[in-house]
Specification:
With 637 residues, this protein is an alpha+beta fold. The chain folds into 4 domains: 3-223, Heat Shock Protein 90 (2-Layer Sandwich), CATH 3.30.565; 228-386, Ribosomal Protein S5, domain 2 (2-Layer Sandwich), CATH 3.30.230.10; 417-536 and 579-628, 3-Layer(aba) Sandwich (Rossmann fold), CATH 3.40.50.670; 539-571. Bound molecules: 3-[3-(1H-pyrrolo[2,3-b]pyridin-5-yl)phenyl]propanoic acid. Residues 54-55, 58, 81, 83-84, 86-87, 102, 109, 112-113, 128, 173 line the site of 3-[3-(1H-pyrrolo[2,3-b]pyridin-5-yl)phenyl]propanoic acid.
């Protein structure tokens, strides 16, 4: 490798530009996080996105059709496209080959490539040169001008000049790279992570064909969706019950902003609206989403009024979005991103474009499709009515909303500490385990709320009916931040909310029900990292007076070895099998316990996960859980 490096340096002739390029790559290797976010598995997969995005740009610009992605047997990745090919040949200004510039100069890609609506160079788009800098080895092959050109690199430094290695009638680019293990915590690519990204990309670019193959396992898939975002919405609704089909599709352009929008209502109560700019996901929304929401509320209200379906009431945004699944995909030149994570579109022209376009097109759609319009308006009116009914019931009974009620649930054994930052709430499955937890806890800062069996499935219940459930009301009052869109994380009474269930199927189900409640109705609680899963031990290994608690099979085996002949292994089936002291020692004592923080990794996948987990369809459930649960919910120790 050193030899190659030196060769590369000699060939570069130490001109001023080479030094600038080297400095750039050095900066990337010194602070990779600045360019790809992180050096963990997420950052690693980012490398693939970067190269694939360049191919997708060629598709969007109309020059390419197919992007092929391979995870090779040796763990490297190859991305091939049939676009124009990265330019090859001496660049007179810089005295260097254009291919080498694109792969070594942080800013060269943009100079050569004038595609207006590109993905690469967008939110995370950093160019192939960054992938090159972070690869211990990279091979670029370009078919262009009737020839096959090739250049190889080590840690971003060319091994030698661009060579011609054959002839070809076609055009395209093939990049093979080996991520540098001295940079990344892991260099193992995961099929499911890449699969999800490619599927979304294919939905958003209906022209694109993305072929994906894992040569380590032989698994392969072709993503190509002629139905575009409309098919995307149908896919997202696959385990929900749509109340009209196909989705409403609105496609057009205003002020240089291209819009591709699809909406479909379901019989559920959640809204799942995902917005994209130049195929980049904007989880925090921004201008395009604001325009979409404003226009949706306005247009549905107008239709209702004009058709005598709404008398003296006005639908609110939440009414017209209940049960709605939608994709808002726009393309615009030079989008401006805002916010800490640059996940929000700032460009205000997008708001104007989307709202003006939708005002016109959605009204037109309703006129031409009165049957669908009726379904939509009825759904929104029913949301409004139940919202109103809930409000009236509150006023009538002077409950002053359960939120303000000062009396804590009788079942709650609260702690004495009042500073929420120091307090923990254990939500415990079953009255008997609840009893042990109450005796075993440190009452200064640990509160216990026992739950009787399974709580209401919030995925299927009307939001205004949730508080009819005693268990959910208890949870809400104990936690103290309210529920639904009024949830206020600054009011919570405990910074650690710990779900403690048995390590069996029922326990897992109860845990998921509680997690669904938190994710759907107290989202900031999850997003701000307040939710934990307790980790009771699976085994107790003992011999005489010595005992070891084991949390995994491996730990158990190790403990048996440690205690030697005659060691006694007992398996804990439920929390109830532990006495208060044992529960404290193994599961509740901050000094010795194991606990996992629940983190939502991917909000789009999370919505699918919860609707699939808690919905009616058993069919897609197993498969999806197996494939995605670990990506959606990251359980950090
Ligand atoms: C710069 C300029 C042009 C294309 C590209 C870069 C390009 C980069 C990549 C990376 C992967 N696949 C790619 N395909 C193209 C435009 C060249 C022209 O004008 O012919």
């Amino acid at each position: 490798m050193d030899g190659n490096k030196q060769q590369g340096l000699r060939d570069a002739e130490y001109n001023a530009d080479s030094i600038v390029a080297l400095k750039g790559l050095e900066a990337v290797r010194k602070r990779p996080g600045m360019y790809i976010g992180s050096t963990d598995s997420r950052g690693l997969h980012h490398l693939v996105y970067e190269v694939v995005d360049n191919g997708i740009d060629e598709v969007m610009a109309g020059y390419a059709k197919t992007v092929n992605v391979y995870i090779n047997e040796d763990g490297s990745v190859t991305v091939n496209d049939d676009g124009r090919g990265i330019p090859v040949g001496l660049n007179k200004e810089e005295g260097k080959d254009a291919l080498e510039m694109c792969l070594t100069d942080l800013h060269a890609g943009g100079k050569f490539n004038q595609n207006a609506y590109k993905v690469s160079g967008g939110l995370h788009g950093v160019g192939v040169s960054v992938v090159n800098a972070l690869s211990e080895h990279l091979i670029a092959v370009v078919e262009r001008d009737g020839k096959i050109h090739r250049q190889t690199y080590h840690i971003g430094i060319p091994d030698g000049p661009v060579e011609t290695i054959g002839v070809s009638e076609r055009t395209g680019t093939t990049i093979t790279f080996y991520p540098d293990p001295s940079i990344f915590e892991t260099t193992e690519f995961e099929y499911e992570v890449l699969q999800n990204r490619f599927r979304n990309q294919a939905f958003l670019n209906k022209e694109a064909v993305i072929y994906f193959e894992d040569k380590r396992t032989g698994r392969s898939e072709k993503f190509h969706y002629e139905g575009g975002v409309s098919e995307f919405v149908q896919y997202l609704n696959r385990s929900k019950k749509p109340i009209h089909d196909p989705p409403i599709a609105l496609i057009g352009e205003r002020y240089g902003v291209y819009m591709d929008i699809a909406l479909q209502y379901t019989d559920g109560y959640n809204e799942a609206i995902d917005a994209f700019v130049n195929t980049i996901y904007t989880p925090e929304g921004g201008a395009h989403l604001t325009g979409f929401r404003a226009s949706l509320t306005k247009t549905i209200n107008s239709y209702g009024k004009e058709n005598g379906l709404l008398k003296d009431t006005t639908l609110e945004g939440t009414d017209v979005r209940e049960g709605l699944t939608a994709i808002v995909s726009i393309r615009m030149p030079d989008p401006q991103f805002e916010g800490q994570t640059k996940a929000k579109l700032g460009s205000s022209i997008a708001q104007k474009a989307v709202s003006e376009f939708m005002n016109e097109k959605l009204a037109e759609f309703f006129l031409e499709n009165p049957a669908v319009a009726n379904i939509v308006i009825k759904k929104a009116i029913s949301a409004l009515e139940s919202r109103e009914a809930a409000r009236k019931a509150r006023d009538a009974t002077r409950r002053k909303s359960v939120l303000e009620s000062s009396s804590l649930p009788g079942k709650l054994a609260d702690c004495s500490e009042k500073d929420p930052a120091k307090c923990e709430l254990y939500i415990v499955e079953g009255e008997s385990a609840g009893g042990s937890a109450k005796q075993g806890r440190d009452r200064a800062f640990q509160a216990i709320l026992p739950l009787r069996g399974k709580i209401l499935n919030v995925e299927k219940a009307r939001p205004d009916k949730l508080l009819d459930s005693e268990e959910i009301k208890n949870l809400m009052i104990a936690i103290g931040g309210g529920i639904g869109k009024d949830f206020d994380v600054s009011k919570i009474r405990y910074h650690n909310v710990v779900i403690m269930t048995d390590a069996d199927v029922d326990g897992a189900h109860i845990g998921t029900l509680i997690l669904t409640l938190f994710y759907r109705q107290m989202k900031p609680l999850v997003e701000n990292g307040h939710v934990f899963l307790a980790m009771p031990p699976l085994y107790r290994v003992s011999k005489g007076k010595k005992e070891i608690y084991a949390y995994t099979e491996a730990e158990m085996a190790k403990a048996v070895e440690e205690l030697g002949q005659g060691a006694n292994v007992s398996r804990y089936k439920g929390l109830g099998e532990m006495n208060p002291q044992q529960l404290w020692d193994t599961t509740m004592n901050p000094e010795t316990r194991m606990m996992k923080r629940v983190e939502i990794e991917d909000s789009m996948l999370a919505d699918q996960l919860f609707s699939i987990l808690m919905g009616d369809d058993v069919e897609p459930r197993r498969e999806f859980i197996i494939e995605h649960a670990h990506e959606v919910i990251n359980l950090d120790v």
